[in-house]
């Protein structure tokens, strides 16, 4: 079925009728909605016959404007429900098919009155209970990128449109064809194009027509394009041969394990790779056969299990708790879980775990992927559309040509510039033989249902460096170009993009450059074997085509490929350094004393800074031509951007642009995904973040998520979208509030007919889960924590390019904490300066030599921010005011000057100073982060500190410890996430009971749906309803009686303090079952007995526990001592602090590979009170004990993770 929506701009003209008739004749739509017909009903009746349509409903025009018309064929049943000057609302039914709703909309053309259209949609939504399609000319945009030319659309206008779509549970159905549906018909700089016409649908409608297509058509009349809705694809996909995929739902099935063991034990004993491949193929064949014959179709088996359960319940209704019924229920749960796992694997959603009944969400994601992964046709070089076999041949030929090597030249010239960097020691490490344990560790890094490779392998190519370094340096350079208005020398930046960078890497160039850099020949041959033994095939609409035998290129997605590509870029780096050394290319220097920056490289994104003159341009082009000829790389001129400094005149800009053959774009262009220039409108610069968050949250598929799934989506997806930008820039506070508002509306969003009532503010939701919140993030505080990380890196990495640049420009004669904004500061530096104040609250000097630490000005004593706040120092002379800590240290003994310290400070401060341990050898003073035991900065601890400083966390009370224990138990329960979220809402008293609804001014009638009690609160609904008494008497927690006069929170704490952990969990699960029973009766008038609801909830709990692989009775993982290998001894150490007696002790046990105790002892320590210190001392004492024994090989085990990490770390320790 096809629908047409078109703003015809008047059909009184015969030309308009001819165009419309041509559209209808060629496409044959069943339903047509026209706007701005500018005709009366009688005239539209005449048009109906000329258009060969059967029925017509018309809203008359007013004067020479407006007019709506809905036309349809005779085989379509249409019932108009309501209409106005701006809409027609109707129920549609095609034959015996399901009924659905269509609303044709013509948005109010006046901006001041457009809110009336949005209110109209909200009123119509209140009566929607089924599939709903909304289409027409809305006269509004959703995002800035839906407009080209003219002034930017007001963000408030677009926000209002987005809000009504969200409130009505609709989503934009997308489109194919031209990007814009309206234009003003002008040319040049006055031309304006916008996407004003669209279709919106709710989740039921998209599920009813899963194969729909929306197209922007063409018409030789009106300034609007016709918009088509087609309920099904015209081209049916061919049945492709099914490829073998291991199903995650097979895990745990005994027959599956037997097949795998049988195949590998009989055929997998060969040591050759051919034997491994043959066994894998045979295993896949047998698993496919078993799945087809025995395991069966999941949906069919689930329906059979449900049908069997229904038969048993109908036959044995008097004994619902019988063994047979329980077994049948578990069988249904097993197949429900398998169905959820199956659709999760097909959806490829990694941020959401199964087990919380999000099957509909996974199913919709999988269907969406299947719909997107369709290629109907492709244009060739002549513009001819190829379909079917010709389309497949075109794709295979393209990739065959792309991966075919070309004759290379100038390789030796490029290689001559590359310096050796790999030392013999490095080669010795690389050539070490690999062991089975290393192979096992690599296999365990693989995701169970994803391609090989650790998930975090591409987060940073070089340890210690971040992508944000390049962003900040590039932003500083562009900021300099933006403000350079004077001087004879002009400069420019050239942002390059390598076309198909990975696919064009020549294997010969990669091999030669690795050898030139000093890699051992054997290692190079091993790497090249991994690169060259590749065969590709192309999946086209699910069917493999090929094979393609490449002779160049690197596999994208391979964990090794980014590193190999970086080795290739060493050739470009070497050429640029040579050109700079020979004065062929001059880099850019932002100020006196700043480093000269000529290029920044990150993977295939490159940005070059140089003088803006013809000679430099030609020299640079020569460098790039040499690199392209040698490596196979090719600069993509369409994506290359040139930015000039302000003092380069327009004539020279045009001359240089003609040499490069590129365009210029000096505003809001991006480098590494972030804007390299933020102007006056900060919100406009970061509007893409808002659009991406809104698109993610408003998608109808996300509305299928459970409450637990929504929590994960907000934390893992929505909050992560702005994180990258917040690592470099301070987002406007208004944008943070808008993003938080989106997430809050999504969290409290409706499911079914539940109203969108915000039961808690976002501020309370951002509190820790162990303090009664949901653990969401305050975006402003999170932004400050991420920017504080940049400040911390400036403190620690003084040799980095970023530090040297910032140091020269913003604090050349002072420290980072003393730095000011400076002249013409960049937007990035402004954000770091704001975060600098917050960072200082958690930083403290670790005294080394004491020469850099001021006694009175700096924070260096634990527990005291500044000593001037503790004692009177105003009377001291200026020389003593500037005194450093080294004056308090005896250089010969490397100890404190006790008399000086006790004379200068009050006793409490002096005691803390004397506790500070000084290094035996003088070393430099270092900043440490006081919020972590390791002394290293973490964003998590910084956010926690900033929350506290902003007063976001609750003040500690007398019952705080007990409350924390309760919340911890709730969130650690081994139950589905939706039950945890229910428990949180119940304990916070924010369930929508009748009493809570009336408290929030919601007009609800009646009382408890079971007993009629008017004041139905949480306690009544879950515990004290008369119908629940017998159930709780038999199934309630043993040894505890619920208290009427106390809240549910107090009753839960009482159960925790008096009973076992299993009693608490069972109580919460049964409460969830009672709430489920109450809602079934309240919403659907379905009566479930309390015992049936409790058994259903307990069955879900037990099946979930079994599904997750936990022991329901124990619920904990136990770790056992493992003996060392035969040539090693193992030393286990531990330390303990007894605060009451101000004593400490350590214990040590030395055992061999058989577990036999070689030596054991314990030592009392009286002067150590810090737990981490006693743990470290335990390791030290243990080594002292082993030294006289002459132990050649020793393994030391400790239960203190911080100590183990510090001892194994290669870099300098920051612990204190």
From TrEMBL:
| Location of the Reverse transcriptase domain | 404-676
Domain of life where this protein originates? Eukaryota
Pfam families, from UniProt? Exo_endo_phos, RVT_1, RVT_3, zf-RVT
Q: What PROSITE patterns does this protein's entry cite?
A: RT_POL
Q: Which CDD domains match?
A: RNase_H_like, RT_nLTR_like
Q: Name one GO molecular function term.
A: RNA-DNA hybrid ribonuclease activity
Name the chain's protein: Reverse transcriptase domain-containing protein
